[in-house]
Amino acid sequence: MATTSCCVPSTSTTCSSSYSLRVKRNSNSLSFMGSLSFASNANSLSAGFVSLSIKQNRPRNNSLQVRSVAAPSEAVAGFDEMVSGTQRKYYMLGGKGGVGKTSCAASLAVKFANSGHPTLVVSTDPAHSLSDSFAQDLTGGQLVPVEGPDCPLFALEINPEKAREEFRSVTQKNGGTGIKDLMDGMGLGMLAEQLGELKLGELLDTPPPGLDEALAISKVIQFLESQEYNMFTRIVFDTAPTGHTLRLLSLPDFLDASIGKLLKLRQKITSATSAIKSVFGQEETREDASDKLERLRERMVKVRELFHDKDSTEFVIITIPTVMAVSESSRLSASLKKENVPVKRLIVNQLLPPSASDCKFCAMKRKDQMRALDIIQGDPELSSLTMIQAPLVDVEIRGVPALKFLGDIVWK
Ligand SMILES: Nc1ncnc2c1ncn2[C@@H]1O[C@H](COP(=O)(O)OP(=O)(O)OP(=O)(O)O)[C@@H](O)[C@H]1O
User: Fold this and answer.
1) Which of 42, 130, 148, 194 is deepest in the core (most CB within 10 A)?
2) Is 396 in the pocket of ligand 1 (CB under 6 A)?
3) What InterPro entries has UniProt attached to this entry (predicted)?
4) Is 408 a catalytic residue?
5) What is the pLDDT of residues 370-399, one digit of tens each?
6) Is 400 within 8 Å of 149 (Cβ atoms)?
7) Is the CB–ligand 1 distance for residue 129 below 6 Å?
8) Nearest protein Cα to ligand 1, atom 24
9) Whose CA is nearest to atom 10 of ligand 1?
10) What is the pLDDT of residues 64-100, one digit of tens each?
11) How far is the centre of ligand 1, averaged over its atoms, from the C-alpha of 397 (Å)?
């Protein structure tokens, strides 16, 4: 065992590090963890932190049992499966704020592009950090080519403010009050007050949390239906932190039900009054608010379908090895499962390597992290997921070479 001297270089310095390996054995697995030596220069990076576990069918009461350092149910991501096939696949990466969602999403996108997939990486997080992660300006709400990967990689930062404005323009005219205008536009003005129980006023005037995200995703779906976007075979979403995701999951159903009720009501009133209108020659021809609402509802239904499609979509949970982050991930996993959203993989990011130095702080921190890994292994929600361990590297992960480096460690 010895020390590691550097990780991701940004200059042409060549650096190397030495090798450390720990072998742990518990009731049914052997785990090897270590930092392999690597040499690097500005254009290429190789090796890094590895972990590998080999399953053994040992009896549970084996006397050789040692406290596990990290015994994931599977230590590799199964990237072969993720990359295989040319049909379009969507990967949504989500988790608690600051755990590394953007870094993992960007590194996955780079890996897909370098593996031959024209790839689109989309940020639906209101606090975008794709531009920072790629060290390129990707703002503007349009497709922007990312320079560096072998195959086309484009990024899209959806502006939630704009998406919300669009939504508001459906419901508000001339600065009026949303629900009143909307109902007037639908010929339901006099009923507006009696529809309080539908909570539509609240919904349209103060959009619920999660709506931004739903609109952003529906916008991407809308984009993807156009010719320009046909080429993409992998779409990676860098999503907003957990809270938004959870609210987003229930939102399409809520909108669908509310808008559905309103549209049904309108239909009833329209048919009751159409006879009178035709007598007086006042048949409506303009595209009214209900058409726009209907389109919004269709888009929400598509968001819901996308989230539930096991063949094309997967939600990957990112966490860090702390008790708080693990608890939140467990709740997220439970909610995703309850909503039938496919989830198979869990990334535990920012793991400290086994320390070779006598840094007390590092040793304590790593002990804490190992405790969190133990909790994951005993967690009914998380233990069944494929656990991918990603090391904490000693410099900030920024730019395509650094993302490639991270991606080659995480996505194997
Ligand atoms: N494995 C890692 N090793 C070292 N630094 C990392 C690692 N993963 C992420 N980071 C750093 O941690 C910070 C937060 O990462 P990132 O922006 O990817 O998180 P996030 O979950 O997307 O955050 P937010 O919730 O704010 O969008 C960044 O500075 C990133 O470079």
Assistant:
1) 130
2) yes
3) ArsA/GET3_ATPase-like, ATPase_ArsA/GET3, P-loop_NTPase
4) no
5) 999 999 999 999 999 999 999 999 889 999
6) yes
7) yes
8) 98
9) 100
10) 233 333 444 446 778 999 999 999 999 999 999 899 9
11) 8
